[in-house]
Design goal:
Blueprint (H helix, E strand, L loop, with lengths): L3 E5 L3 E7 L2 H6 L7 E3 L2 H9 L3 E7 L1 H11 L3 E5 L6 H11 L3 E3 L11 E7 L5 E6 L13 H5 L3 E5 L6 H16 L3 E5 L3 H6 L1 H10 L3 E5 H8 L4 H8 L5 E5 L5 E5 L2 E5 L13 H14 L4 H15 L9
Parallel strand pairs: 1-5, 1-9, 2-7, 3-8, 5-6, 9-10, 10-11, 11-12
Antiparallel strand pairs: 2-4, 7-8, 12-13, 13-14
Helix pairs in contact: 3-11, 9-10, 11-12
Length: about 325
C-alpha cells in the first residue's frame, strides 16, 4: 500500500515566455521579483509575449509533481474555474499521475495564472494573477479528501485571508481526527513576516513537520543566526527541516540535529522549484519510513536536478 500524500495550495497555471531585459524595463518590472497583478494587467502582458509553455504550477502542486516523479502516491486540492486554464491545469496534473481532488465549477473569477518571464541570464520574473486560487475555503474540502492519506502538506501562502485561515483550521481538525500527519512550508520570508505569530502557534500546537529555508526560519524565530533559531525551535519537539542552498540542509528532530551536504551541480539554469522539489523528496522518503538523513539526501538530490533545468517539473 503506497503511503499517500495530499497537497493543498494555490492552483496557478504557469505561463512561460522568453523575453529580453528591455521588455522588463518597458513594463517596469524588477528582474527576479514576483509581482501580484490584476486581470487586465495579466491580459495586457499576455498579449505582448510569445508563450513557450503552459503548465500546472503553484508551490505545493510542484511538490506533488515531485512525489509522483518518485513514484509516490500524490493528490492535490486547489481552487480552479471551469475555464480553459482550469481544464489545462487539471489535465497537466493528471498527465503526471497526480490525482486532482477538487471539483471545479463556474466561478466569477478565472483560474489563477502566473506569467513567468525568462531573461537570457536564466533569471525568472513573475507576474501572478491569483484569480480564484486564493479563495479556497473550508467548504471546498471535505473529510473524504483527507481521511485516506498519511500526510497533508499545506503552504504558508494560503494563510493570507480570513477564509483561508478558516480553511487551514478545518483541514487541521479533519487531519487530527483521522490521525493524518500535518506538514507545512513557510513559502517565503514576506509571508512569514506577515503571519509570524500565527505560524509560530501553528508549529507549536498543530503541525508535525515544518519546512523552510534558513532566512524564513530565522524570521519565524525572530533570531539573527541559525544556531539561535535552532536552539529556540528544538524545544518545541517537532520535525523542522531547514534548507540552506549550497550549504546543504538540516533537520531538527526532538533534540537531535541532523546535517546533510548539498549535491554539487555543474551549472545552475533556473532556481525555481528548488525548495518545492526538496520538500517532495523529503516527504516521500519520510512516508516510506526512511531515516531522516536519507530524507534530507533525497530532498537535496531532487533539488539539485531541478535547478539544472528550466521550470519546476522533472520529466
Amino acid at each position: 500500500m503506497n503511503k499517500k500524500i495530499l497537497g493543498i495550495g494555490n492552483a496557478i497555471v504557469d505561463v512561460l515566455a522568453k523575453v529580453d531585459d528591455e521588455f522588463l524595463n518597458k513594463n517596469k518590472l524588477t528582474k527576479g521579483s514576483m509581482k501580484l497583478i490584476n486581470k487586465s494587467e495579466f491580459e495586457n502582458l499576455k498579449k505582448n509575449i510569445k508563450i513557450e509553455k503552459v503548465v500546472a504550477g503553484g508551490s505545493v502542486a510542484n511538490s506533488m509533481a515531485g512525489v509522483a516523479y518518485l513514484q509516490g502516491s500524490a493528490s492535490f486540492v486547489g481552487k480552479i474555474n471551469s475555464d480553459n486554464f482550469g481544464e489545462l491545469y487539471k489535465k497537466s496534473l493528471q498527465d503526471i499521475n497526480v490525482k486532482f481532488s477538487y471539483i471545479e465549477k463556474d466561478e466569477d473569477l478565472s483560474t489563477g495564472a502566473s506569467i513567468i518571464l525568462i531573461t537570457p541570464d536564466s533569471e525568472r520574473t513573475m507576474c501572478t494573477y491569483l484569480g480564484i486560487s486564493s479563495h479556497l475555503s473550508a467548504s471546498d474540502i471535505n473529510e473524504k479528501n483527507i481521511a485516506d492519506h498519511k500526510l497533508v502538506f499545506l503552504e504558508g501562502y494560503l494563510w493570507d485571508k480570513g477564509i483561508s485561515e478558516k480553511m487551514f483550521k478545518h483541514v487541521i481538525s479533519i487531519a487530527k481526527r483521522n490521525k493524518v500527519k500535518i506538514a507545512m512550508s513557510l513559502s517565503d520570508i514576506f509571508c512569514v513576516n506577515r503571519h509570524k505569530q500565527d505560524f509560530y502557534n501553528l508549529l507549536k500546537n498543530q503541525l508535525d513537520i515544518l519546512i523552510g529555508n534558513e532566512n524564513e526560519i530565522n524570521e519565524l524565530a525572530s533570531k539573527k543566526n541559525l544556531l539561535d533559531s535552532i536552539n529556540q525551535l528544538k524545544i518545541l519537539n517537532k520535525l523542522i527541516v531547514i534548507t540552506r542552498s549550497e550549504n546543504g540542509s538540516i533537520a531538527i528532530k526532538n533534540n537531535e540535529i541532523i546535517n546533510c551536504k548539498s549535491v554539487k551541480v555543474d551549472r545552475i539554469l533556473d532556481l525555481t522549484g528548488a525548495g518545492d522539489l526538496f520538500a517532495a523528496g523529503f516527504l516521500k522518503e519520510y512516508l516510506d519510513n526512511s531515516d531522516i538523513k536519507k530524507c534530507l539526501e533525497i530532498g537535496s538530490k531532487l533539488a539539485s536536478k531541478i535547478i539544472q533545468k528550466i521550470g519546476a517539473r522533472l520529466e
